[in-house]
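hey m, so remember when u said the tokens were messed up on ur end? i reran from scratch. heres the input so u can diff it against urs
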Amino acid sequence: MKRHECNPLISPSLIKASNPLFKVLGAFNPGAIQFKNEIILLLRVAENCLPEKDHITIPYYKNGEALVMRVSKDDPELIFKDTRGYFYKGVDYLTTMSHLRLARSSDGINFVVEDNPFIYPTLNCECFGVEDARVVQLEGTYYINYTAVSGDGYVAYLAKTDDFKSVEKLGIIFPPLNKDVAFFPEKIGGKYAAIHRPDNKGFGLPSMWYSTSPDMMNWGEHCCLLRPDGTKTEQQKIGGGSSPLKTDEGWLIVYHAKGENSIYTLKLLLLDLHDPTKIVKKSSTPILIPETDYEKNGFFPNVVFTNGMVEKNDGELWIYYGACDETVCVAITSITDLLNHFN
């Protein structure tokens, strides 16, 4: 893995806020796809409100519009929960909101970020924001799944586009609490397939699961694929990255692991081509760990997190990743090098 010398490629200072009274805190965790002659990233853009002297300012969406709620700091009905949210007049609100924004590049390094959100909260299940998109081309259609967040928890939501100019929201595909959904790029045994990550409450740790579907909307045949192994890098949870890559040796998955001291790393998994519920190999060591200043110091320190990869014609694999929940970076490798990492 070679980090590009231009990292970070995209920083919050390059992003226009969706409301003049908002401030962009992070542009990170991009989905990625090659579309015609461009590489398109679906950025997660996190924003909060500019502070005011006498009021608490809270971001929220109404009818798809980004707005600011102003509440007097002395209002007895305002309850400060923690750094992430407030409780006001019986309703929860977050201090930050996320939406998805497109960035386009002809060389994969120099990106132009669009001024307006591409996918943003319009539904009750999205009222706390939309996050961490993955995108895959299946049978001529580009399917986008993302995490929709609300007071009911987070769900996996499905949308589609043909042109990355307009988008159609299709519906919830995995109910609370579920995220980190990544579709296989082709049918397996006549069915669509995906990995996903339910959040355990009570027993065990958040793990990677496998499911199939006849139509991309209704998912079943769920089975737990991989659990955190309890080592230094996998003490808390694991989750899938972007779509698995088809290789001669099996389906190659780059996944994230949260370990000791809440450090996020990237690791590898290889699944059987014909039966992806069978694990062929699992890497014992990460392929990417927080080492640079932009990966170790930021909004959420010590995080590298990928949900977007692009395979180039020359065999290179460009892994786009978020650093510290703040910036977009890229690391360049190849499928051959990743497969050799298992040895």
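this time it looks ok to me. The CA atoms of residues 12 and 272 lie 40 Å apart. if urs says something different then somethings off w ur setup not the seq
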